[in-house]
Structure formats: structure tokens, C-alpha cells
Fold these 3 entries.
Entry 1:
Amino acid sequence: MVRGCGAYLPKRVVTNEELALKVDTSDDWIRQRSGIRQRYIAADGELTSDIATAAARAALEDAGLDPGDIDLIVLATATPDHTFPSTATMVQANLGMQHGAAFDIQAVCSGFVYALATADSFLRSGQFGRALVIGAETFSRILDWEDRTTCVLFGDGGGALVLEAEEQPGTNGDRGVLVSKIRSDGRFKDMLYVDGGPSSTQTVGYLRMEGKDVFRQAVTLLSEVVEEALDAAGLTAADVDWFVPHQANQRIIDAMARKLSLPSERVVSTIAKHANTSAASIPLALRSAIDEQKIQTGQLVLMEAMGGGFTWGASLIRW
Ligand code: UT7
């Protein structure tokens, strides 16, 4: 079950207007095409591991637990501090943990759904008892700030859940992760990628995206995987209390809500404030929905995400 949820955003807010002073864009264009109004940008020297550690600490506090109570850290990020060691081990050290295991998951914007699926499998197998599942990114570091088609869309931040293994009856009324479905198809690699890497260019590279093509695929792929997740749990969209999608574009979120016949009151959208924070967007949205007294114990939360690869997936959590 979910024991706690935490989030962290860097201090600096960059509005669309501020961006429009640097690149040939406008607040109108960004808002109309994506729903974004502002994004948070990490300070110089503020690393993905710092953001992840702050989110993890907030989740632990929410859970009323200490780092000593956790034995697994799964961290989703596409913007690690270093090529290696993993950012998860940096977080482990920051938390003062000298036990258990910590590793990164790389599935870009789908990272949190992949991390949740991975941590849940380990908890179900009995290998670990409590996990920190973190999504944290500093996408500002891999943006080409001269490319207006991408730099206006992303932001930095992090969020985390504490998951705890617990014996349950095995019905769709159980608390915790009910179902995870993850998918990928590497044939789409050229639609969304970073043009660098240790093996290919020995540089970090910049994010490149064929936005229109990604947009076209998103709703089809996401609808299929959401349907599969609901079917596997013996549930329908009508059972969903809160839809917490990856925050890439308000128009994708709206199209998904329409397909699922979910009224906008049950859709959590943070894209206006956070922009697209990749693997961090879902846990950031979960925390903001909790802060707004939306998600309550026993309610059904549907999450979905799609990103570079392509990777995509959906999760159902009974809170
Ligand atoms: O999280 C990972 C998954 N990522 C996504 O899901 C992103 C999916 N894609 C999208 O969200 C949208 O495709 C975008 C927001 C990236 C773009 O929206 P669009 O409606 O597909 O616009 P477009 O790319 O077709 O661009 C329309 C026009 C173009 O001008 P022309 O060719 O029509 O003259 C662009 O050059 O808008 C122009 N444009 C801009 N104008 C002002 C592109 N970027 C900007 C900009 N400001 N920042």
C-alpha cells in the first residue's frame, strides 16, 4: 500500500513571458498548444539527486518513517547526476542508508510507471518490505535553449511514494498497486531522443522531438494500455476516482479524459504550473492532488505515461 507521498520543486519559476524574451515564442502559443504557463528550473549546482532526496525526505515524513525503514530505492530519471553510479545510490547515501538496494530506471517520461511496476514486483516477491519509488529530473540541463519547439515544454522537479508490502485478500478492493502494464517499441526511437550519450558521442546531448508525431501516437497507445490495465483489474473507467496522467500536454490529457468519459473534476492536471517534468510529473501531480484534499484513502487512482523509446504504461493504485 501507499504509506506516503512527497514532492520537491526548485525555487526558480520561469514564466512563458520570461522565456519569450529569450526565444521566438509567446505566452499565447505555449498556453494554447500545451497548457503550460510556467515551469520550475533547478539552481546552478542543484542536481537530480538533490531534488530526489528532498522528495524522498518529504515522502518519508508523510509516511512517518525513517530511511532505516526502507530497503529498496527505485529512481526513475533520464537526467542522472552521472553516467554512473546511479542517482538512486546518491540518494541512498544522502539519506544515510547503508543497507538494502538502490537503482535507476530509464524509461524517460514513462519512468515513474516503470519504477512503480518494478518496485511493486519486488515487494510482491517478498524480497523487500518497503520501497521509495522516486521520479526526479533536471530536464533543463538537456534542453537546447535555442530550439523553441522543445525548450518551452519541459521543467525540473521530483516526487516520491513510499510503498509497503502488506498481506491483502487479492481483490480489486486491496490497497496499493493493483495492476501495472508497461510497454515499449524501439522503432519509434527517432521521434523523441537525446542526440548524445557516453557510447555514441561521449557528450550528454540535447533533447530532440518530432512533437506532432509523438502527439499523434500518444492517445492511441495510452488508450490501449489503460484499457488493458482496467481489464486486468476487472474495473472500468467509471470506477476511477482520480485520473493522474503524465503531464506532457493539456490537449493529450483532455483527449484521454474524453476517451475514458471522465469528467474534468476527476482529472488531475498540473501542467500549467510544472510543465513536462518527465518521470517526475506523476508523483508531483499526486502530491498536489493530496494537498488539494482530492485523493482519499480507498479511492482508485489511474496513472498513465508515454515517452521516448517509445515507452508507455499505466498503473492502478487503490490509495
Ligand atoms: O512527454 C513525452 C511525450 N511528449 C509529448 O507528448 C509531446 C507531444 N507533442 C506536443 O505536445 C505538441 O506536438 C507540441 C506542443 C510539441 C506542438 O504542438 P503542435 O500543435 O503539434 O504544433 P506544431 O509542432 O505543429 O507547430 C505549429 C507551428 C509551427 O509553425 P508552422 O510550421 O505552422 O509555421 C511551429 O514552427 O508552431 C511553430 N512553433 C512555435 N511557435 C511559437 C513551434 N514551437 C513554437 C513556439 N512558439 N515555442
Entry 2:
Amino acid sequence: MISVPSPAGPLTDRVSGPTEDEWAAAVAAIEAVPAGGRVLLLCHVNPDGDALGSMLGFGLGLCRLGGRQVQAAYPGGQQLPPALHGMPGAHLLVAPHEVWSDPDLVLCFDVASASRLGTLADRMSAPTSIVVDHHASNTRFGGIHLVDPGAAATSVVVQGLLDRLGVPLDVQIAECLYIALVTDTGSFRFEMTTPAVHELAARLLATGVAPAQIARRVFDSRPFGAVRLFGAVLQRSVLEPTAAGGRGLVWTYATLADLETYDQQPYVLEALIDSVRCTVEADVSCVLKQVAEATWAVSMRSKGGVDVSRVAVALGGGGHRLAAGFTGVGAAPDVIQAIRAELD
Ligand code: 5GP
Ligand code: MN
């Protein structure tokens, strides 16, 4: 396995992006794939706009370079989530059981730790692997690391890599990268939205990407049953002003029974946290989404007073300072109690 030394120091102190050596090693590794060689692209389980947009945008870029075979995959499925239907490059997706066992090169996108690759984590033992990510909590589990905790989205790192490979942006690549950027920045509202982010967005839009269409598809489309489901779940929200050392916690939960009552699929719940986190009386917001009898996918957000990635990591998950998550085990009140305890 090719390995490039990375700057030393605690993970959370590393705020700079990839070194020139790391960029050069990644470009060299990609260019070294022989004609007809197999390049495998991976992203994390339950992929979001940044994971899929970064992976497929890069995949299309690699196809433009030509000469290599390209597969894209994530653990647990082969489909685009409904909110991302129409994303270019979806034809590169293969089911996990079809993924090559012996690729020449593996790149993974938006993956902070190997566990987020599930059943596909073993592919990282390919002769060369490149981790492309922007999580400060990245555990640097590959051979070459393009990790920029200062990047608003993994797609920002991908755009840098495509530039260095000499791949010109076209409207399809740009649509993937734009969806990644607009989802991870919360439509350019979150704190990482720098002037450079808008400059990148301008480059993407200049190719002909249609932002209004994308926004409607990705953020503003929901079945009527989901509108009613949100009503029921938001109605049972709990505000705890004294939690999180007085900064306040607001939380709610959605069960599998709720999904059945309103005839909805789990993906619709992903937008729920955005309605809960509006609560001005709480710095921290939290949504528990039941995935099995005593198992919950937990989403956490902070307005700035609390590092929720610390809480998520302590409870077995990960994420960013202001947006993180983990898998909670037990009854909902027990999971909330564990969060409360970590927050205090
Ligand atoms: P969301 O709440 O939107 O599902 O996730 C917010 C962020 O938290 C994601 O970008 C991801 O970095 C992180 N995250 C969410 N769930 C998990 C999890 O179960 N494990 C880890 N390691 N990170 C998670
Ligand atoms: Mn991301």
C-alpha cells in the first residue's frame, strides 16, 4: 500500500488542507492506473448529497479522462435517494455484491472512518487508496489523504483534484459538485460558506447548472404524507432549556410506526432536523429516527455553543462541530439521557 506521511498532531488540531506532497501523490496514483485498469469509487453508508455528488462528479471526470474502468458504490444499496434522483453519473453505480474485489485504485469520498464503508471497508486494502474528505474527525485510514477540514464540502476537495488532473468542468460534473456544495452548506447558510465557496459555486453555475431546479428537487419536494408526518413528529418535540449547561436542548423522535401510519419511507425524515433546529431557545437540537426495534439514527445540530461532534464521537459516531450523528441503541428516553449526560 502506498502511503504518504501526513502532518503529525491531534486530528482535531489539523485545520490545514492537503499538503502539496499529498496532492502530487494523489494525482500520480490516478495517472499511474494502467490502460483498462479498475478504479473503484466509494462513499459512506446512507449517502447524502455531498457523498454521492463528490463520488459521481469525480467518476464522471475520470470517465472524461478515459482509459480506465470506473465503478462507484456505497454499502447497502445501488439507488440514488429520491431527493437526489436525476443526479448525473448514476449509471456508474453498482450494487455492493458487484463491486470488484481487486481494484487497482480505490478512492473514497466524504468517509470519516473505515466503519462508514460497512461491508466495503475491506476494499481499502487495494494497492493504492485515496481518502478524499473534509471531516476534522477523519481517522486517516487510507494510503493517501486529501482531507481538508476547512472545506465546506468534500466536493471542494474533488474540484481541487479535478483541476490538478486537468479535467475541465462540464455541466454534468458541475451539477454533481453543485448538489454536494449546496447540501453540505445548507444552501450557503452554514459557517463554512466563505467567499471561496461562492467562487467555486460561480464556476459550477457558469457551466449551465440550473440552481432553482436543483433546489426544488433536493430541498423543496416532499410527499403530502411526509408533510403530515412532520406535523405529528414536530408536535411531540421537547424543549429542555437547562440542558447542555443552560444552552438548551430540543429533541424529538420518529418511529417506524410513524412511517407506517403516514405510508412514508425513512429518507423523508432526513429533513426533519432542519425544522427542529430552528428553535431559538435551544443551542442543541436532536432527532432520533428509529431504524429497528431498539436502534435509532441520531442527528444532532448546534448553533455554535456546543461541539456536537464530540458528543457523537463519545457515543460511537462522528461528524462536524455543528452537525453530527451516531447510532443510538436502547429505548428513545435512554438514548436522549445518554446525549444529555454527554452535553453536561
Ligand atoms: P445527519 O444528521 O445529516 O445524518 O448527519 C450529519 C453529519 O454527522 C454527517 O455529515 C456525518 O458526518 C455525521 N454522521 C451522521 N451519522 C453518523 C454515524 O452514524 N456515524 C458517524 N461516524 N458519523 C455520522
Ligand atoms: Mn460532507
Entry 3:
Amino acid sequence: MMTKSKRIYDDAVKILPGGVESQFRLLDPFPFYAAKASGSKVFDVDGNEYIDCLLSQGAILLGHGRKEVVKAVRAQADTCANIAVPTKLVVDVAKRITEYVPSVKMVRFANSGTEATMHAIRTARGFTGKDKIAKAEGGYHGLHDYVLWSIWGPFDILGDERRPSTAPFSRGVPKAVAKTVVAFPFNDIEATYDILHKEKDELAAVITEPVMANMGCLLPTDNYLTQLQKICNELGILLILDEVITGFRLSRGGAQQLFKIKPDLTTFGKALGGGYPLAAFGGRKDVMMELLGSEDVWPPKRWPARTYHGGTYNANPVSLAASAAVLDILADDRVYLHLDRTARTLFSGLQNAIDDRRIKAKVSSCGSMAHIYFGADEVRTVRQAMSTDWDLLSKWCMECLVRGVMFGHPKGEKMFVSDAHTSEDIDKALDIAGQGFDSIRP
Ligand code: PMP
């Protein structure tokens, strides 16, 4: 049968590479096109309904179309969209962020996680006067050239596990940039120390995700983050914690509250905007004040100027209105209790369903996000995570998708739950997950 999605796709491929607007949205044989979303569900143009555990790649924490958020957005749209002049909303949201995340003393806004990490890195470089950054192998920090390194690849390109090479993740990223990036192995604190110590005189910052959420859901082990922070302090390197996925999701204070660490800079995105484009970076006052100086007028009187930060759409009032509504709701502990309870039921149910069928797979979770590592009982390192059976994950995910649950994305995106997911959603999701497991068993 010719579906509406197929018809749209046939048109789309002529004018959009792959018929989609991001590599991650490609789907074989063609993607479905969404018509609307509400609460825990997404509906496609053919009227199919999906329980949504992709949740806009983690951006939707409270569910789609949460009424307080929609109301705030509507009211703001009536008042003004972007005017590139500060509004009081910017102060309200900044205050909330600094209140929820105490390591963040000062904050600036951006529009995407990519921008937030780019600005945070540049600020760290400006502040320290050094050029290099170190990133955890397997870590994802967005799309700019400085971080599209050592994310994924064949092991011979990635190099020695304990002394990884700086391996490009994409064509088009200048080879010269490799000289500014050093990779280190997450969860191997001795190897991490050796690398950072060797490079310390040139390193402005270390950037890492607290939970390697783009490598499935790889948790830090043996106090890795605390140790990493200590090493950074000792060696005089700034620690940038990329909380674009984990911020406001794993707890009100993000992963840093959960793992009790205090980074120098933090980046936020996704949940912060409640589905609208908004991101932020912030941290130590002395570091953030790098963005300001007496010479910070245009054109700069002294050259070079201090570290530059700008953007036409920074702190877009409509996104800020959504964010203020989200952050207000997050003041209520019940949100996190519900997220935790719902997540626990779903994720333990998935592991039980796997074990009942004697499938070798591990559900790895942290708060309201999880990933299934097929073909493994335990995963502690990035290389182990990369070696799990991502093809089988994709197959299972697809089997569930056609039955009405988006468990993340068949291309490997992990799953999330939202405040809008009900126990009926979870029962149904688990039922479909079981059918999915049955259908992929050899
Ligand atoms: N950092 C992390 C940890 C992310 O997961 C992502 C996106 N998945 C980004 C940065 C980039 O964010 P965006 O897609 O909004 O640019």
C-alpha cells in the first residue's frame, strides 16, 4: 500500500539528501513523517500512533505539548519573538539555572548543544591562553570541527585503546584541527592521567559527557568523574562537563549533582528548552568573565578582543518562555519521582524480558535514560560499548517501531522516558518489546 509517508518521502528525496534534515533521521527503507505529538505519543501522517521513548533525542522531559509550556509559548509569541535585545526572561531563566546547578555562577545562552560546547571550549581557550582540548573517546559534543573527533570508527583508526589517536569522525573536518584535540579513554583513570599529564602545558580544557550517552548509556565507574576532576584541578586544566543530555534530566542539578562533582564549566541544551531551541553554557565566575572586558566594545579597542560570544538568536524569548515554564515545573520533586519510578519499571521490565528469553543483552540505565547493549553482559569501556551488537539493536528497535513504540531510534539513539509516560504506556511498551525480542531471536 502506498502510504502518505512514502508519498512524502518520494518528493523529499528529490530535494533533501535522504529525504531528511539530519543524518540521524534516515530510516530504511524510508522514514515515517510525523503529523503531531501529544503527551507520551507521536502520530504520523498515516494516523499511526507511537509511544515515544525517543523524546526528541532527549529534549522532551515533561511530555509533548505540556500545557504550561504551550501556554507560556503562546503568550510569548503574542508578545514578541526574537528582538535581539535582552528581556527579563533571560534573567529569570539564568537565575533558575544557577539555583539548580550550583557550580554555575554565571551563564550565557545559545541555540543548540553544538553552540554551547563550541562557546564553552572557546571561553576555556581564551581564559587559559592555551589551544588544545582533550575529549573522551566516544564522547559526542555536537557538530563543530573541534569535537568531531574520536567518536566512532574502526579500532585500527581509533588507535591504541589506552592511548587513542585523534581520529576524524567525518569528512570535511580539517586535518589541521587534529593537532588541537587529544583523546583519552573514559573510565580508565590511569591512562587518562598519563595523557593529560603529558599534554598539560597545552591543554585548555577537558570536555566529557558525565554518562557516555552517545555510546549507549555508559556509566562512569570507580569514581571516574571525581578522579577526573581532581586531575584537572591538579594539572590546571578546566573541566567542561557536557550536560546537554543529562542536564535537568538525571536530577534537577543534572549529572553533577548525582555524581557529586563541580566542573569549571557546564553545557546545557535539550531538556532546558522543553522542545524549543535553547542551550546554555556557564560555570565559574572568573572563567565566564573572560567574555567581558573593558575592551569589549565594537570595534575592539585592543586586538585581539577578549573571547567572543554572540548570536542573533541567543536567548530567543519564545524558547526562554518554554524554558521558564519547564524549570518552574521541575521545582516539584514529584516530577523526578515519577521519572524514576517509570524508568525503573520500564528498564527492569526490559531486562527481565531479555533474561526470560535467554538473550545475551544488558540494559544499562541512568535515571530516565537507557540503552540495550546486545551481545554483552556488562559494558565498562567505550571500546566494549562499540563492540556490542548495534545491528541487532537496530533490528529490535525497528520491530518495536512498526508495532508502535519508538525505543530510541533504530540508528542507535538510546531511549528516554518522560513525565507524561503512564503505567499503561509502560505495560504496552513492554508487551511490544517482548514481541520485538521474540522476532529477533535466532
Ligand atoms: N552534547 C551532547 C552530550 C549531546 O548529546 C548533543 C546532541 N545529541 C550535543 C552536545 C549537540 O547538541 P545539538 O544537537 O543540540 O547541537
